[in-house]
């Protein structure tokens, strides 16, 4: 999920709708996806904001180094 947001340049003004984040996962993994998103929000790596199209997620630019370390570790 973090890698998808990072690859799309979702920092600050750039964002990705939560629906699109979930779209790439299997239907049986939707519950897991919601759980991961909540945990990322709790860690303040991801923020949510309301748009006219629905909830959108974007990465915390202040934690860019930590985000890149996570992506590098998972790759």
Q: How large is the radius of gyration?
A: 12 Å
- How much of the sequence is in beta strands? 15-25%
> Would you give the CATH topology?
Arc Repressor Mutant, subunit A
End-to-end C-alpha gap: 13 Å
Helical fraction equals: 40-55%
Helix run count? 4
The major β-sheet equals: 3 strands, antiparallel
What's the arrangement of strands in the largest beta sheet? 1-3-2
Average pLDDT confidence is: 88
Q: Uncertain runs with pLDDT below 50, 5 residues or more?
A: none
CATH architecture: Orthogonal Bundle
**Number of domain units:** 1
Helix/strand-derived class?
alpha+beta
Order of helices and strands: HEHHEEH
Q: Looking at the structure, what is the overall shape? A: globular
CATH C-level name? Mainly Alpha
Record field, number of beta strands:
3
Can you describe what's shown?
The protein is α+β, with helices and mostly antiparallel strands. The chain has one domain: Orthogonal Bundle (Arc Repressor Mutant, subunit A). 48% of the residues lie in helices and 19% in strands. The protein has 4 helices and 3 strands. It has helices at 2-7, 18-23, 30-42, 64-74, and strands spanning 16-17, 46-51, 54-59. It has a 3-stranded antiparallel β-sheet with strand order 1-3-2. A hairpin with a 2-residue loop joins strand 2 and strand 3. The longest helix is centred in the middle third of the chain and has 13 residues, at 30-42. It starts with a helix and ends with a helix. The relative contact order is 0.24.
């Amino acid at each position: 999920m973090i890698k998808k947001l990072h690859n799309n340049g979702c920092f600050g003004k750039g964002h990705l709708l939560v629906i699109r984040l979930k779209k790439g996962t299997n239907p049986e993994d939707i519950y897991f996806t919601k759980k991961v998103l909540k945990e990322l929000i709790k860690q303040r790596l991801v923020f949510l904001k309301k748009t006219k199209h629905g909830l959108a997620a974007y990465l915390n630019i202040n934690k860019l180094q930590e985000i890149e370390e996570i992506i590098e570790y998972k790759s």
